[in-house]
Amino acid sequence: MKRPFAATVVRDGKWYVSQCLEVDVASQGETEEEALANLQEALELHFEPPQATSPPKVRVIEVEVGAA
Fold first, then answer.
1. 3-state helix, strand, coil in the chain (%, to 5)
2. How many Å apart are CA 9 and CA 28, to the nearest integer?
3. H-run or E-run covering 53
4. In angstroms, rounded to a whole number, what is the distance separating the alpha carbons of residues 57 and 11?
């Protein structure tokens, strides 16, 4: 099944960075077309069923936020 996704592409130095607006997935490439092709591949991988051989370990980390 194919589904459309909206994406942005911005230049960041010598790279083009593409980001999906509906799913937290991003990629990059040396051209806009390459960045979008890489984003398409990343989205396809994102939606593949997990193939883990063992359950992932859940960790808790603490981060200082709002510190000056």
1. 20, 25, 55
2. 9
3. none
4. 36
pLDDT in tens, 40-56: 999 999 999 877 688 87
Q: Which 3 state secondary structure label does DSSP give 20?
A: strand
Over the chain, what is the mean pLDDT? 93
Determine the residue type at 19.
Answer: Q
Dist CA 48 CA 67 (whole Å)? 39
Structure tokens at 36: 């979008």
Rounded Cα distance between 51 and 67, Å, is 40
| Closest listed residue to residue 9, CA positions, set 45, 26, 43 | 26
